[in-house]
Amino acid sequence: MDTKHGEHSSGETTDLLIDEHILFRKLAYISPNPTLITNTKGEICYVNPAWNQLTGYSFDEVKGKNPRILNSGKTPRRVFRKLWSALSSGQTFSSDEIFDKRKDQSEYQIYATYFPIKRGDVNEFYVQVQHDITKQREMNEKRNMFISIASHELKTPITTLSAYAQLLKKQLVYQCDNKNLALLSHIIYETNRLTNLIDDLLNVGRLESGDLPFYPKALNLSALVQQLVTDLSQTIQTHTIEIKGSIKGTVLGDKNRIEQVLTNLITNAVKYSPQANRILVHLSTTATMAIVAVQDFGYGIDKKDQQYIFTRFYRTQDKDEGSIAGFGLGLYIASEIIKRHKGKLWVESKKGTGSTFYFSLPLLRSYN
Ligand code: ADP
Fold first, then answer.
1. Cβ(310) to ligand 1 under 6 A?
2. Which long-range contacts (CB under 8 A, 24 or more apart) does 336-340 make?
3. What pLDDT sits at residue 14?
4. Average pLDDT over residues 208-223
5. How far, in Å, CA of 303 to CA of 344, rounded?
6. Is 244 exposed, middle or buried, given 0-12, 13-18 or 19+ CB atoms closer than 10 A?
7. How far apart are alpha carbons 298 and 279 in whole angstroms?
8. What is the pLDDT of residue 322?
């Protein structure tokens, strides 16, 4: 993630009653953030104690040298290109893709913010304020590895359980054993729930390692929605699902993945509107996009939660929803799938009234 900002506020006049030079020295000295300053010739002219501690270098060992000597070679070139274009136009630049090496040659990753200090219109110094994110990255990698191994290991027994449950169901139907069939239906329901949760975990692992395959082809989205709603209506007893409108055209998409997104939106609409009994699926087109919207009349989502629900593992803290099972992965997976189709997924919702989840996909061909 790289970000560019406008002119840094250090250029503004302030009414500080103390010498700014002393203030800067003191702040940098006690700051837990490693800080490094170079002049316009690219020579290191200041480092603070936090930086000494992170890198193992003393100031004398790096004084006058170019910070390039610290680069581990792993920072992508595009980051440097963006950095120099931002600094030369007087802007602040941040990136979490900076990889440097310590004196003992071990690598570390930092989130760094760079900004120029100007005299008049001319850059005089470049300041780099760092945040060591090495541990955070390692934790993320371990967590992803754990999720991936655990979900693979869980998938095999659950698939076997599911297969035997279906076999048993056939026998009980044949024997007209309704009492045991009712018991078995609970086992099948819970097994399906577990399968869906494990599939979500597996998908997240694959999405992050870039291993989730996509097989795009021309799709008639109207027909796909129609078929999926018919299939889902067989298993959803509590709500009716109505389709409004149509999509005049085709989109380029992976049928299974788009079905996965729609299934997630519709099952969420059911899950989070237990007091309602209907769901609307709106289909429409603009000049360039096909739009599908799934509307429910349930709990709704607070404004403060709406920006987070598409991130991994995020679930709202709503008390009413406390008993509803989930990992907070479905919308993250759905939004990643839609992004890979060059589309957009968003929500409009009002607490207590209901939610409408929209996704748009670029039209391949439109017809009237
Ligand atoms: P899960 O449903 O498994 O928790 P999702 O990623 O599908 O995970 O959803 C994330 C969170 O967004 C849910 O926990 C819920 O709080 C909220 N949410 C999703 N869909 C709806 C909906 N239709 N109505 C209200 N809240 C919703």
1. no
2. 336/207, 337/254, 337/257, 337/258, 337/260, 337/261, 338/261, 340/214
3. 52
4. 88
5. 19
6. exposed
7. 10
8. 65
Q: State the distance from the centre of ligand 1 to the C-alpha of 141, rounded, in angstroms.
A: 25
pLDDT tens profile 89-140:
889 999 999 999 999 999 999 999 999 988 877 888 999 999 999 999 899 8
Percent of the chain having pLDDT more than 70? 93
- pLDDT, tens digit, for every residue of 337-357? 999 999 999 999 999 999 999
The answer to whether the CB of 168 falls within 8 A of the CB of 181 is no
296 Cβ inside 6 Å of ligand 1: yes
Structural tokens at position 353 = 């009234």
Phi then psi dihedrals of residue 177, to 5 deg: -90, 80
Show the beta-strand stretches assigned E in 159-224.
217-219
> Which residue is listed with tokens 């930092």?
110
Q: What is the phi-psi region of residue 156: left when phi exceeds 0, alpha when psi lies from -120 to 50, beta otherwise?
A: alpha
Say if ligand 1 is within 6 A of residue 102 CB. Answer: no
Q: Evaluate: CB of 290 within 6 angstroms of ligand 1.
A: no
- Between the CA of 131 and the centroid of ligand 1 the distance, in Å, is 33
pLDDT of residue 7: 46
Distances (CA, A) of 275 to 96, 137, 242, 296, 332: 45, 42, 17, 11, 26
> Could you report how far apart the first and last alpha carbons of the chain are, in Å?
41
Check pocket membership of 355 for ligand 1, CB cut-off 6 A.
yes
Q: Which helix (H) or strand (E) holds 253?
A: strand 249-253
